[in-house]
C-alpha cells in the first residue's frame, strides 16, 4: 500500500466521495463502458438514468469492484480501488449497496439479517449489533418486523430491510441499483421516502433509477448514460426538464409516456411526410 502523508490524509477527507477517470469495461468484445469520467462529492445525491443496457449497473459495480474495470481509475473517499494493492474488503465495508433484488437470507429473521453481517464483517458483539439493527429498523419504519422472516414481508418492506441492513454497517456512501424496479407500484413510495430521508440526512448516494420524480426532487445532479458513455449531466431541472441532447429527449419521452411517445413519433413522422409532400 502507498504511504499516505498528512497532507494526503487531509485530501482524502476533503476530496470527492467517488472519482471515476477514463473508466472502460469490456466483456469479451462488447465494450460496455467506453470512457467514463465523473465524480460524486461528499453528501451529494447523484441519480444515473438511461436505457436498459447502457452500462449503469456495470458502472455501479465498478465502483466497489464487483466488476474489474478494463482500464481507468476509480477512487472512493481517497482510496484508489483500482490500485492492485488495495484492501478491497476494507473499501467495500465503507460502501452500502442496495440492489433491485433484496438478497435477504430467507431462513433468518429480519433482526438476524441485520446483525449477521455486523458480527461477521465488523466483529460487533451480539448486543451491540442488535442495538444498531433496531435503530436502523426504526429509521426505515419497520420496528415491528424484527422477528418476521423475509417471506412474510411485502417487497417494499423487504427492500427497506435491505436498506437498513446496509445502514447497519455505517457506510460512508450508498449505491442503489434500481431499488424500486421489482416492486408493485403501490410499494414504491415507502422505499423512495426512506431514500429521501437518507438524502436529507446528508448521506452520499449514487442511485440508478427510472423514478424521474424522485430524481427531480432529490438528486443534486442527474447523469444520463447511453451506449456506455455519459451523454449529459447537470441539475435535474436541466437534464430532465430541458435536456440538451436528442438521445436524452427520446429516452425521457419513452419513459414518461411509453404509449404516447410512440404515437407522438408516429404523428411527427406523418406530419413530416405531409410537409415534405406539400398540400394536396
Ligand atoms: N457479466 C457480464 N458478461 C457479459 N456481458 C455483460 C455482463 N454484465 C453486463 N453485460 C452486458 O453489458 C451491457 C450493459 O449492462 P448493464 O451495465 O447491466 O446495463 P444497464 O444497467 O444500464 O441496463 C449489456 O449489454 C449487458 O448484457
Ligand atoms: Mg442495470
TrEMBL record:
Localization in the cell: Cell membrane
Domain ABC transporter: residue ranges: 18-252
Coiled coil: none
Keywords for this protein: Amino-acid transport, ATP-binding, Cell membrane, Membrane, Nucleotide-binding, Transport
SMART domains with a match to the protein in the record: AAA
Mode of membrane association: Peripheral membrane protein
Gene Ontology molecular-function annotations: ATP binding
PROSITE patterns: ABC_TRANSPORTER_1, ABC_TRANSPORTER_2
InterPro entries from the UniProt entry: AAA+_ATPase, ABC_ATPase_HisP-typ, ABC_transporter-like_ATP-bd, ABC_transporter-like_CS, MetN_ABC_transporter-like, P-loop_NTPase
Pfam family, one: ABC_tran
Keyword flag Transport: yes
Cited SUPFAM superfamilies: P-loop containing nucleoside triphosphate hydrolases (SSF52540)
Family: Belongs to the ABC transporter superfamily.
Name of the protein in question: Polar amino acid transport system ATP-binding protein
Organism, as annotated: Streptomyces clavifer
Source species taxonomy: Bacteria, Bacillati, Actinomycetota, Actinomycetes, Kitasatosporales
